Amino acid sequence: MSGGVDSTLSALLLKNAGYDVHAVFMRNWDPQDDASLGPDPCPASADFEDVQWVDFVKEYWNQVFERTLADYAQGITPNPDVLCNSEIKFGEFMDKVLSDEVVESIEKRGKDQRIWLATGHYARTRTLPSGETQLLRGLDRNKDQSYYLSMVSEQALRRTIFPVGHLPKPQVKAMVAKAGLERISNRPESMGICFVGKRRKFSTFLAQYIERSPGEAVDLDGRVIGQHKGLFAYTIGQAARIHHGPDKWFVLNKDMKHNRLICVNDSNHRKLFSNCVFARQFQWINGEPALVSRPDEEDQVLEGQIRYRQEAIPCTVQRHMDSYKVTFSSPIRAIAEGQNVVLWRDETCLGGGVIHSAFHEASSA
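RESULT FIELD:
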């Protein structure tokens, strides 16, 4: 439980449905590791006198945070929320709360007893006749969080319940308020990376752990237009905040070898758009689809997206050794190495991978 409306209503719905509900708060960050933040930036953490605490600070640091820092230091833009779900929430955490010992003790109470992990994510699951579990989008497309769950294994999803996945967010807040929990229903949205919060720029936070190496910012012709503060602090497509002449400058690329930030003076410069990506570390939730070996068939087109809440775009997928090539029907602006590409067939999430290159491929038509 995070203490917000989504996890609160999830627990309430399950309780009303007759489940034996046990609340667990997963602690992933020690505020002492970031003393400059001041008081704990996760205000909900003060409200857990009545729930069980499970400490995963070490696991989060080793399996998510250090990998995130290493990526940023190499000029990559990772998605730590996707990694946290696959490695910690539906990995280490699930293994602990649904351990063999726990499951056995529960199931001994009766042959019909089963134990599940429930969360407040806006997503749904569907059980196939084969017994496999599929991941579906949440019905509230504005809040759908299946993107962040795209690399969670089918085995983990099979043991998970998403009680609010079929509800729109306004109804969730109204139901919590109706239950007499107005204080919770009026809470602001929680942040994905809780320990950062809304207090500061993420680049300022990262600067506590990654050494700044200022260098030159240049245009496409190599002319120096200013100085950057450290390549890790910039993301492809963002405003570079470099004042040189009358133009505004936007990040196109990072030259890690020469410590240079490459910029263009048009937010919609053609070089900022790509229609193809190569992705590795692919997690197919229900196994690699057969369509990967025959991507040219018109009825085998999927939908893909590289950012949360981005509109899904028709695409095809081909396997290339240890990578997959995803080709979109229209170009996408500012794709960065390290981002996740997630694939759907209709409402079903097939899985996703980590982008290691993006480019524009001219049409053969």
